[in-house]
Design brief:
This protein has 82 residues and is mostly helical. The chain has four helices and no strands.
């Protein structure tokens, strides 16, 4: 297995591995073993941003001429009569 890694990233993580007493190879093996144990990655991989519905609501609100803006939550709740 081989991987291409930017030199800056490699240097940065090698400092961390060194402090942990690991070589890059050992760190990669640890990562791969954890993937094997958990049958997947140990963190979620997601696209940044909002879902379609959220984006629609944001666009709709920003185009609303009747949009009310409040200086703080107290004013907002007072307007809602809460």
């Amino acid at each position: 297995m081989s991987a291409r890694v930017k030199p800056e990233l490699k240097a940065s993580v090698e400092k961390i591995f060194d402090e942990l007493g690991l070589t890059s190879s050992e760190a990669i093996i640890l990562f791969l073993k954890q993937v094997e144990l958990h049958l997947g990655l140990l963190f979620s991989i997601r696209l940044p941003g909002y879902n379609t519905h959220t984006m629609h609501v944001i666009r709709e609100a920003s185009n609303d001429d009747d949009l009310q803006i409040f200086d703080n939550a107290d004013e907002f709740f007072k307007d809602l009569e809460i």
